[in-house]
Design a protein that fits this description.
By secondary structure, the chain is of the alpha/beta class. The protein folds into two domains: about 80 residues, Winged helix-like DNA-binding domain superfamily/Winged helix DNA-binding domain (Arc Repressor Mutant, subunit A, Orthogonal Bundle), CATH 1.10.10; about 220 residues, D-Maltodextrin-Binding Protein, domain 2 (3-Layer(aba) Sandwich). Helix content is about 45%, strand content about 20%. The strands form three sheets. Strands 4-3-5-11-6 form a five-stranded mixed sheet. A four-stranded mixed sheet has the order 7-10-8-9, sandwiched between helices. The chain has a two-stranded antiparallel ribbon with strand order 1-2. It is elongated, with a radius of gyration of 24 Å. The termini are far apart.
């Protein structure tokens, strides 16, 4: 069967970006053109092919069956072209953007990122805040650390840590309030962040009281923090303002420095994991792979400390 004439590569490129992001606006931003230009290129491609590739609504677009059939091969094709071009292009300093929640950036990533940049000085590394409940469609050279129950779909995802929830307080708080056993949490002022509730149907403390076999229908929260402000809960615990159910990846640095301690157990595992996430195919690029491997190794240190956290309880 003779091959028919290929559509315009620029039209296919516009389709691929819009299909991957399910947004003409985001595709336009990626391609550095206007949304109208993306829409026009896609209309031209649809006219040439004689099929509709997108179902258009007022505020969203979805792929039609024809679009779903076309998108994987087009995405793979452009990725192969990029990889081939990279093989012949003169070396330049690769860029890498790492995205994570503020809690993870401040308390886990930044205290050790200098090790990565020292090992890989040729990689231009930047850090951006991205909360795990915010939508994320990775572009080239983007890696995110995402919290989820299961691996995020339609991306490359590598599990690096299953979080533990650990009762924490400053040494001064424990001394002042006489907090030494799990039952003391019934009367202690508690610090509560709302992140857990975004992924599960209960607060972290409610899960903890159940695991501890304690009855606490209305926990005595001294301070509540919304998801955006959750990172401040650890600051308040360090300052002796309450008892915190800390996240293992959040409190590692403060625990290692003795600014907080775990006065009792239980330590619980709520079923949430951190994943390294990037666009499929990007995990093979040397600078992206270097970060993925490094971050996985750093996260493995937490696993070696799990027994210590549990013993502290």
């Amino acid at each position: 069967m003779p091959l028919r004439r290929m559509p315009s590569l620029s039209a296919l490129r516009a389709f691929e970006a819009a299909a991957r992001r399910l947004s003409f606006k985001e595709a336009a931003s990626e391609l550095a053109v206007t949304p109208g230009a993306v829409s026009q290129q896609i209309r031209s491609l649809e006219d040439e092919l004689g099929v509709s590739l997108f179902a258009r609504a007022t505020r969203s677009v979805t792929l039609t069956e024809a679009g779903r059939n076309l998108q994987p091969a087009v995405t793979d094709g452009f990725m192969q072209i990029r990889e081939a071009v990279d093989l012949v292009r003169p070396e330049e300093r690769p860029a890498l953007s790492v995205m994570a929640a503020g809690m993870v950036i401040r308390n886990w990533l930044l205290p050790r990122l200098h090790h990565f940049t020292g090992q890989q000085p040729e990689i231009s590394t930047s850090v951006k805040t991205l909360h795990s409940w915010e939508p994320f469609t990775p572009a080239e050279n983007e890696v995110a650390i995402r919290l989820a129950k299961t691996p995020p779909p339609n991306v490359y995802a590598r599990k690096i840590h299953s979080i533990l929830l650990i009762p924490l307080a400053s040494p001064d708080f424990i001394k002042r309030h006489g907090v030494t056993t799990s039952s003391d949490a019934l009367r202690a002022p508690l610090l509560q962040d709302a992140v857990i509730q975004l992924f599960l149907d209960r607060t972290g403390w409610e899960l903890w009281f159940e695991a501890a076999g304690l009855s606490k229908p209305v926990p005595n929260y001294a301070l509540n923090f919304d998801p955006i402000s959750a990172d401040f809960a650890l600051d308040m615990a360090i300052e002796g303002k309450g008892l915190l159910l800390g996240w293992s990846i959040q409190c590692y640095h403060a625990l290692s420095q003795g600014r907080v301690v775990s006065p009792f157990g239980p330590v619980i595992e709520p079923g949430l994991n951190y994943y390294l996430v990037c666009r499929k195919g990007q995990e093979r690029r040397p600078h992206v792979k270097a970060f993925l491997d490094w971050a996985e190794q750093e996260a493995a240190i937490l696993s070696t400390l799990q027994s210590l956290y549990i013993a502290a309880g």
